[in-house]
């Protein structure tokens, strides 16, 4: 069992967890993830290792509360314990490419942090483009600024940085400065697809980190499979990073929706129980 | 008090005792065990059928050579404790093997009473005495030899790892089992369903191991959390046993296999057995097989998927197998149970394409009929497609139960480990040594997908090899070296 040493809210529906996991911290490389299980009745979910401190024996997880498991994790306190296994997946392939653009959207900013850092250490010029719906949802700005040479922000509502999508920022960047040597993109599947569609005709190498549904994370179930080129790949062991130009994003997005109905049932039930046990009216409820 | 001995003629006249079982109509609505086990009366009556042969063929049929006539004779005498002690000399996990061994191909296949009539139900008797001990609640623990100071790492907690760990602990070594999942047991826990092998039995066995002093560390993926070399050199283990099984699911490579609703057998069974998806939303992992399910394959894995789908509420459950019932590799009992439960077996049928709708959900499968041609390498007649015989079946879910290969996660991250062309670890058959000094292996990772008893036997054999290695080659524990 791994103890939660610190739980902080860093943005609405975003929490950062400092977790005691010495073996994982020691072996972690950028791009890798862990699988977390909250309790006996829980579901195994993958979360990227956003940071690791081998000396202190800790890892950092940054989690967006989107459904039952991530919301329930959000109710846990310092001193609580969870099951953690990892580090899983292949580490990011880091080289000295020249100019690297790191695009992070929403919860995808957290996994981008160790990659941007490693790229910078490898003497690349790192330009990060970070996007979110609104200012509050662009997480980890100071950390990403430290890990990049330049950071460009975009929001859907224009509350911070440029109004628009990360792809607009990428387009503007390329119009003024030319093609980067490589692009990394992590975020919602639709964002990664849009980036891939933009860089494919320009032949800019582009790496994405895929977030398929997983169970074991060790290549045993095949539930995480995606089509990459002509092949079927297991994201947990062959990835999670792949050549964006080869990934069948449409199929992947469909597969992500496999359990939409069940997820809604679980979420509603959890929220109801949460309100009952707190014995206070939920916002908007009349006593 | 000894019971009167029957003569041979009287013994031969006794019919094979029926196994009490849940009614098929009821059991397809629950996940409780199907075969309920012998009562003491049934067990003694069955034991009376054994002729106590001078040259008992049955022993040769058992992969771990249990002294079958001796333990059956003890049951005849109602001395169940002695019966169990005899079994345990060779089999660490009798409650499990008695339930899942393919007896009809092993001990019972060669039993002499089977020549003219039906064989002695050796497996059921073995299960009976093991259950008798479990019910009594007092497990007699074996003596542990004094501590040797050696530490052994066991990678994988399936039957191979469990058996190896038990024997090494008894020999006085300090043993840690490393398991990738959050629960130990391997296929016994994530694969074989509750209705065939109740999980409390596996848990009891693991509890007994812990009482022997074995440490079980879950959530540890060897090759990721630490490499094999690190386990030996940095974590200070003197030897290691690899029992990582055959966990890599195969797909057919036909069009449509990535539609929503196409599962590997491993995923389907893991969701239900390990994660308890049948109790969603009390358990958080979902599964939704819908009303019409087809399972491809006809081994034990496929039987488990078919019968699980039925219990999850599917109305129509179809087995697609490219050969005939006679070639089906499943245990006979599972096949019969599946037939009783109303599985629609379509022998000589093989899928060629899976269809889906524009949202990505499976809608059906195209199947081609086969006929049996000339025998192939395995000696079985090769299935040949019949031109123009294709037809379509409407479906919600397709489960691929066509086999598993060795998971390359550990083997490919371990330098110097010799593998064969299929990716299985190459070992010396007598000692189970691999190409790396101090590293041994056994079970499905060596043989390819096989059986619980073979994996258990390999774990036991390796424990002897490891013990010999430690005493004769390593000589001094790492911890005691300068
Ligand atoms: C390699 C990888 C790294 C990830 N890293 C992070 C991270 O650092 N921070 C973060 O906030 N999120 C991360 N995710 C996504 C995270 O795993 C999901 O948000 C989480 O599983 C949702 O669970 P839930 O019960 O809260 O929501 P649900 O309501 O169950 O699901 C919401 C959506 O999440 C996806 N999902 C559901 N179950 C799983 C599952 N078992 N495995 C994977 N995805 C699932 C589905 O697409 C689903 O529609 C990562 C995913 C992957 C594959
Ligand atoms: C559904 C199903 C039904 C079956 N039915 C029968 C039956 O009725 N009768 C019968 O005799 N046989 C049956 N079998 C076959 C039998 O279960 C296997 O032959 C047997 O379990 C093999 O044992 P093992 O110890 O080699 O490996 P496994 O039982 O596969 O255990 C391997 C363990 O190692 C772990 N592991 C893998 N890699 C790592 C790593 N890198 N680090 C740490 N841990 C790791 C896995 O998580 C797993 O827990 C069935 C198999 C399946 C899948
Ligand atoms: S072969 Fe059959 S009858 Fe003979 S000893 Fe074995 S079990 Fe008994
Ligand atoms: S272990 Fe299996 S083969 Fe051996 S006697 Fe028992 S049931 Fe028969
Ligand atoms: S999550 Fe099971 S194979 Fe990838």
Question: Which terms summarize this structure?
Answer:
heterodimer, A: 287 residues, alpha/beta, Elongation Factor Tu (Ef-tu), domain 3, Rossmann fold, 2 domains, seven-stranded antiparallel beta sheet, seven-stranded mixed beta sheet, 30% strand, B: 482 residues, Fumarate Reductase Iron-sulfur Protein, Chain B, domain 2, FAD/NAD(P)-binding domain, 3 domains, five-stranded parallel beta sheet, 16 strands, globular, binds flavin-adenine dinucleotide, binds iron/sulfur cluster, binds FE2/S2 (inorganic) cluster
Concise synopsis of the structure shown:
Chain A is α/β, with parallel strands linked by helices and 287 residues long. Chain A has nine helices and 16 strands.
Describe the 3D structure.
The complex is a heterodimer of chains A (about 290) and B (about 475). With about 290 residues, chain A is of the alpha/beta class. Chain A has 2 domains: about 1-90, Elongation Factor Tu (Ef-tu), domain 3; about 100-255, Nucleotide-binding domain of ferredoxin-NADP reductase (FNR) module (Rossmann fold, 3-Layer(aba) Sandwich), CATH 3.40.50.80. Chain A contains 9 helices and 16 strands. Chain A has a 7-stranded antiparallel β-sheet. Chain A has a 7-stranded mixed β-sheet with strand order 11-10-9-8-12-13-16, sandwiched between helices. A two-stranded antiparallel ribbon of chain A has the order 14-15. The mean pLDDT of chain A is about 90. Chain B has about 475 residues and is an alpha/beta fold. Chain B has helices at about 10-15, 25, 40-45, 55-60, 70-75, 80-90, 95-100, 115, 120-135, 160-170, 185-190, 200-210, 230-235, 265-275, 300-310, 330-340, 410, 445, 450-475; strands spanning about 150-155, 175-180, 215, 240, 250, 260-265, 290-295, 315-320, 345, 350-355, 360-375, 380-385, 390-395, 395-400, 405, 440. In chain B, the strands form 4 sheets. A 5-stranded parallel β-sheet of chain B has the order 3-2-1-4-16. Chain B has a 5-stranded parallel β-sheet with strand order 6-14-7-8-9. In chain B, helix 3 (about 40-45) packs antiparallel against helix 9 (about 120-135), helix 10 (about 160-170) runs parallel beside helix 19 (about 450-475) and helix 14 (about 265-275) packs across helix 15 (about 300-310). The mean pLDDT of chain B is about 95. Classes of the chains: A alpha/beta (about 290), B alpha/beta (about 475). The interface between A and B is large, with 41 and 38 residues.
């Amino acid at each position: 069992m791994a103890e939660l040493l610190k739980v902080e809210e860093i943005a609405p529906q975003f929490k950062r967890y400092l977790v005691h996991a010495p073996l994982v911290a020691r072996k972690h490389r950028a791009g890798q993830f862990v699988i977390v299980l909250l309790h006996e009745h829980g579901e195994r979910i993958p979360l990227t290792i956003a940071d690791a401190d081998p000396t202190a024996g800790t890892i950092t997880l940054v989690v967006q509360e989107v459904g039952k498991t991530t919301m329930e994790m959000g109710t846990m306190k310092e001193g609580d314990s969870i099951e953690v296994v990892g580090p899983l997946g292949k580490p990011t392939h880091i080289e000295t490419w020249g100019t690297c653009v790191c695009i992070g959207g929403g919860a995808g900013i957290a996994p981008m942090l160790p990659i941007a850092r490693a790229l910078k250490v490898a003497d690349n010029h790192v330009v990060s483009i970070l996007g979110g719906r609104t200012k509050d949802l662009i997480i980890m700005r100071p950390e990403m600024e430290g890990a990049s040479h330049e950071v460009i922000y975009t929001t859907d509502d224009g509350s911070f940085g440029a109004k628009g999508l990360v792809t607009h920022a990428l387009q503007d960047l390329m119009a003024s400065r030319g093609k980067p040597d490589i692009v990394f993109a992590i975020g919602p599947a639709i964002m990664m697809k849009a980036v891939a569609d933009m860089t494919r005709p320009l032949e800019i190498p582009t790496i994405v980190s895929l977030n398929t549904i997983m169970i074991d994370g060790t290549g045993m179930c095949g539930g995480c499979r995606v089509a990459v080129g002509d092949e079927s790949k297991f994201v947990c062991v062959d990835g999670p990073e792949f050549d964006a130009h080869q990934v069948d994003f449409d199929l992947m997005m469909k597969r992500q929706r496999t359990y939409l109905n069940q997820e809604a049932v679980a979420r509603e039930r959890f929220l109801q129980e949460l309100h009952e046990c707190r014995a206070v009216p939920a916002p908007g409820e009349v006593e | 008090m000894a019971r009167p001995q029957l003569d041979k003629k009287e013994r031969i006249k006794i019919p094979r005792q029926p196994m009490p079982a849940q009614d098929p109509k009821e059991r397809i609505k629950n996940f409780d065990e199907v075969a309920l086990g012998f009562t003491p009366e049934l067990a003694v009556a069955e034991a009376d059928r054994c002729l106590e042969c001078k040259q008992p063929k049955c022993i040769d049929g058992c992969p771990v050579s249990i002294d079958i006539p001796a333990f059956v004779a003890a049951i005849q005498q109602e001395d169940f404790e002695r019966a169990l002690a005899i079994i345990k000399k060779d089999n660490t996990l009798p409650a499990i093997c008695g339930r899942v061994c393919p007896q009809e191909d092993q001990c019972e296949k060669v039993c002499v009473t089977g020549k003219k009539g039906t064989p002695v139900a050796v497996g059921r008797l073995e299960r009976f005495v093991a259950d008798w001990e479990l019910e009594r609640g007092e497990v007699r623990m074996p003596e542990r030899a004094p501590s040797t100071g050696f530490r052994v790492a066991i990678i994988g907690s399936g039957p191979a790892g469990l058996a190896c760990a038990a024997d090494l602990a008894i020999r006085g070594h300090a043993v840690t089992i490393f398991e990738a999942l959050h629960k130990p047991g391997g296929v016994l826990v994530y694969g074989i369903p509750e209705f065939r092998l109740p999980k409390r039995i596996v848990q009891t066995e693991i509890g007994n191991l812990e009482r022997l002093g074995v440490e079980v560390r879950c959530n540890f993926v060897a090759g990721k959390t630490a490499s094999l070399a690190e386990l030996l050199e940095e974590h200070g283990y003197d030897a290691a046993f690899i029992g990582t099984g055959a966990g890599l699911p195969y797909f057919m490579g036909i069009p449509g296999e990535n539609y929503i609703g196409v599962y590997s057998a491993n995923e389907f069974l893991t969701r239900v057995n390990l994660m308890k998806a049948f109790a969603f939303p009390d358990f958080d992992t979902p599964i939704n097989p819908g009303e019409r399910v087809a399972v491809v394959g006809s081994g034990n894995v496929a039987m488990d998927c078919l019968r699980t789908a039925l219990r999850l509420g599917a109305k129509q459950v179809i087995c697609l197998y490219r050969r005939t019932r006679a070639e089906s590799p499943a245990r006979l009992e599972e096949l019969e149970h599946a037939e009783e439960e109303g599985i629609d077996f379509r022998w000589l049928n093989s899928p060629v394409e899976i269809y889906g709708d524009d949202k990505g959900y499976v809608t059906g499968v195209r199947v081609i009929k086969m006929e049996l041609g000339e025998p192939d390498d395995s000696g079985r007649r090769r299935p040949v497609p019949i031109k123009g015989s294709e037809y379509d079946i409407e479906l919600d879910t397709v489960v691929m139960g066509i086999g598993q290969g060795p998971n390359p996660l550990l083997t490919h991250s371990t330098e110097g480990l010799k593998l064969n062309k299929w990716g299985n670890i190459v070992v010396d058959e007598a000692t189970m040594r691999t190409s790396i000094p101090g590293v041994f292996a056994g079970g499905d990772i060596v043989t390819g997908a096989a059986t619980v008893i073979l994996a258990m036997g390999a774990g036991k054999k390796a424990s002897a090899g490891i013990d010999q290695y430690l005493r004769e080659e390593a000589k001094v524990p790492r911890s005691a070296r300068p």
